[in-house]
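Internal tracking record. Fields below are filled automatically when a chain is submitted to the structure queue. Please do not edit lines marked as system-generated. If the sequence contains nonstandard residues, flag them in the REMARKS field before resubmitting.
Queue: standard
Priority: normal
Entity type: single polypeptide chain
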Amino acid sequence: MRKQFVIFSSLLLAITLGLSLFLNKNWIVLFAIFLIFTIMGYQDMYQKKHALRRIFPLFGRLRYVMEELRPKMYQYFIESDTDGKPISRIDRSTIYQRAKKQLETIPFGTQLDVYAEGYEWMCHSVSPKAFDSLNHNPRVIFGNKDCKQPYSSSILNISAMSFGSLSSQAVESMNGGAKIGGFAHNTGEGGISSYHLKHGGDLIWQIGTGYFGCRDEEGNFNPELFAEKSQHPNVKMIELKISQGAKPGHGGILPASKNTEEIAKIRHIKPHTVVASPPYHSAFNTPLEMIQFIQKLRELSGGKPVGFKLCIGHKAEFISICKAMIHLDIYPDFITIDGGEGGTGAAPQEFSNYLGAPMLDGLAFAHNILTGLDIRKHIRLVASGKITSSFHIARAMALGADTCNSARAMMMAIGCIQALLCNTNRCPTGIATQDPKLTVGIDVADKKVRLANYHKGTVDNFVELLGASGLDEMKNITRSHIYRRVSLNEMLTYEEIFPSIEVGTMLNGEIPEKYKWDFAHSNMNKWGV
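SYSTEM-GENERATED OUTPUT FOLLOWS
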């Protein structure tokens, strides 16, 4: 678009100038108009703050015209996110304002319908804690008894998004922001690229069913390659992806248009082909073998924290994994619970909309089972599913999360406008595309700072929420602190909606009725129910 603008504007200026000189002087008026627009277009191309204007000179300004038409027209375009599910206009505006360090306060009270079913809120205290007295940079240590290199993690980190799904400039912006803000960047299953390493941010290396970056020519896991790459000092943790919220039970998808020579080299695959990861792992076949494989990854990495990510499906299978942990006395350092509402890229509609437990349900279940079996003390829980605000972090922690991962909010912080073109290679902001004509719009130096701003602002506001609730530590948030309206005249706490389990009670046979069938059908020697 930039090249076309230069050619077209030059032709218009030449034509109108010629007409004014040789035909009629009145043409000079049109020449002046075109000259003003041309100057505006060149300003757009050379400024670095707005990707759309940089990529689409002059025409990119129409987006800001639409913003001025709020709330009627613009709201229509932003009430759906990249996987077609609703996201609050307020949350999105907050992300943009926080990333740009703009005024975040709002006039005339809440813009949400507080009497609508599903409205949620957090309890406050008449004796709140002073913000200045609280820890502004809360951290969580990852690493259990078998870990030799524990990692001190931020409470908010970048969720899994691969290079290939994202452009190199977007990956750089993410990692640069992580370096500035002191938080972690999950590579996604596409492997570790030079763009993940360029800025020195902490990495969580995700290993998916395709074993990209650590596979042999047949696509099987290659322990030598894994050992070599996992011991890089920037790699702080390893995450084994069992399933993801966008399409649980379905492998990752990389369209042929995004599979460039560079990406193929990083992944050890053929370029310009559709890359569909297998729906299941070939390195293990049972829950017992899965836990043994996790231990193998930990040993090959030199003792770094290793965990796994999944969206809760058959509950009996998760219980089978827990039984395998207890039997082997081997525990992952963390478990990431993804939600069926997650996902920012390509996924079949039915998988995205109707498969997998939502994050809140999955998180509450996983925490209850781990607690009831008295193995929660070995494992950190990470919530990953539509985390965009400080309240979402508090809500997840109330259900048992230690930290949270976010993908969509991080994308918005670096300029995503949710054009719903993630899977087409035509993302207009240059974030979810490999087209160099579009990726040129991202200025890494600016976007990495915006990402760090968003992270810091969100964590700061979470700490303020803690203080307002009369709490001084994250561990003191309980399910009783969060309320949800279930009808016009009935509100329930999360403790009432998701009842807690006492530590170790399931070891004594005290299994709640709703879990008895799942326990009866769990088997650490095979998958399925």
